[in-house]
## 1
Amino acid sequence: MAAWVHACLEPPMTLPTSLTILPLGVTVPVVPGQSLLEAALAAGVSLPRSCRNGTCRACRCQMRSGAVRYRIDWPGLSPDERDAGDILPCVALPGTDVGETGEAVNIVIEAPLAQRQPAPLPPPPST
């Protein structure tokens, strides 16, 4: 069952952490201190976003498994939305209540509007 932790009071996770983004089926690494949105973008996956501070809700998606904690005390989700598994990847960090067995942690989210970003163009040849 998906879980969330209210505030980001603990140190960042040090266990290997990954994020799987459905329906793309892409799994990307999440480094300590990196939000789920930042991890996706760093791996070439674009998620809807706007404010990046948890207020606009443009990045809202469903967490299917795993746990998150937030960089801010109260992200823009109602208690009912949190209970339903909604998260805001722009301010969501991997939670600390999973992976206590020393195993790698995988967070699974469903973000129907996620897209793979095109690979960057190579630099022009020097003349």
## 2
Amino acid sequence: MGKQARKRRLPEALKGEYRPLLQCTNARVQGEAAIQTKVTMNEMRKVLAEFRAKGRDFKQLATVHDEILIEAPFDITEKERDKLVEVMTQSYLLNGVANESDVEIYTQRWGDAIRWDDFKKERGY
């Protein structure tokens, strides 16, 4: 096995004539994911602007792969949370199929995430 194939962990068969086929498939998947993320980010920007127009302090902080990190007020409501999930799952449908989205709350540090249901229990909702 060649050095490049080992590095990428590709079978020897994929080095030759089949390699363009693999790259073509991967490019389609990567490209579709990039489009999906960009469309969702644009829709999220609009929703966060609506929240800010109502006096709510929401900010889009970063995008990491397929995640959008949002700074939200500690008193975020279930209705606001549902709207954020709707944007994440419905902004870009591939063949009419909705996406899946998890909501995690970081109250202190990045590594201390808690699930939405646990956050609600803590707050007495």
## 3
Amino acid sequence: MEPPEDFLPPPECPVFEPSWAEFSDPLGYIAKIRPIAEKSGICKIRPPAVSILGRGGWPPPPFPLEVEGPCPAGGESPLGGGVCL
């Protein structure tokens, strides 16, 4: 099926890549970027890179994590507080 001739694809959504310092308070960071994200109605937040060995002493975030990729035998996320997909 061909798209209609007058179809215009939607614009790209904004993508945010916070540092660990910015992301240490994830809900505060979301509040900070909210005015930008609301303009498009959606956004993507790429969290800071995480080593499979841990986050260097950072406390676990206040929400569960889902990690894609290899998982230990127990199925628990190596980051704690979540499960591997």
## 4
Amino acid sequence: MKNQFILVYLLFSFLILFLNLQCVPAKLNGTCDPETPSFAMSALLEIGFDDGQYLCPLFGGLSNLRLNYSSDYIIVRQNETLIPIVPFSSEPIVHCESTPSLPIGLNLDESNCVISGTPIYGMNSTKYSITANSRTKQTTVPIIIKSLFIPKFAYVVNTTSGLVNSYSVNASSGLLNASGFVAAGGGPESMGISPSQKYLTVANRSSNDITQFTINQTNGSLTSLGNIPSGGNSPLAMTYHPHKDLVYIRNSDNVSTFVVNQATGTLAIVNTMPASPGASSIAVDPFGNYLYVPRYNEKLVDVFKVDSTTGIPNPNIIQTIGTGTNPRNLEILANGKNLYIVNDVDNNISSYRINPDNGMLETLGSATIAIGVNARSISADPTGRYIYMTYQGSESISIYKVDPSKGYLSQGIAYPVNQGNGPTGISIDSSGKYLYVTNFVTSNVDMFSINLNDGSLTHNGNVGTSTLPISIVTAGSNP
């Protein structure tokens, strides 16, 4: 009823103004002057826009309080001071608060909702609600904050030798320095770092088990906690829940869930659910609500709902959607808005929008045009602006720009891997500044710096590995 009254009031006011303007010459004294022809347009824009350009005090009481941070996804870096983020507000703010409280080191000014400070901890993408109050109104806006870890360690898993190589990371240059190796299981092809950065988990495809390691927070050395069965056959892929102490293992015909004892790092299986044959990869969205499991042999990907309390996926598929031929690897943007799939045979990338309400996927146009052969792995920079993919048969990395509005990918640009052969695994470090590629044939890792302005790469040399390196991950640490 209130909105109807306002609408009638506005229409009546516009009618009076229109008749008045037919008789009185226009006085161009600004868009808020009732005798200016643009005044009516200003009033309309007042209702629908929040950039402040068309706000007029006369209409300030007719619209809701509006608060806008220009982006709902905020990237900060551990121990780096944030340039204050000043939001737009349609009215003066008298009080502002966040639920939950912002990460330690970040501050929310209660008088104007400005976010500033120096984050102490690295953390995965986390949702916050910012509630602002003016003198008479209130509004709440959602934002996502991701705090990038300072890179400290890197690990490479080697398929043939079954070894995991350890490296220290120079945080200023991104260069890797070899520090040793340890044995995993048979034929390892996938690994991941726990959200706490304390544990490394390796899925061993040939020996049907998982190796769990603790990470020394001082020097990055690995200590094996032993191997346990994977809960199925041929564990090809794994991923950690972003906020819970859980690991999801993609076996050839099921998905197993393991809980991680945060005190000891040991794993215990808590659930197994069937999944279609044809394992290739697995991914969970940044907020831990949905699990995505491709069907490598069927040009499909399945979507599962994850229980918000237990973290265990419901075995009932909520959606199955088409992909390209032989979907091999997945990548989800850290803001949770888009998912990308590498299609093995088609040598391209399929793009999807993730529905925030139900996790279902919506195809975004056509797949990218192939610019190489033997497409393998994919990685997104944590700001969500660029996608990188390895072409194993073309000795190259393809770079794609992500449309900030919808998530569409630009046509890729091929970047040659000059000193390696058979680029396979790819990973962007925990700070988002460096990129690493494992070369399957020459058994080394190419190192690159990422231009944070345009996503381009600068080669920084390479470092040796054990035999047939297939995957690489990096880790940081918290105080």
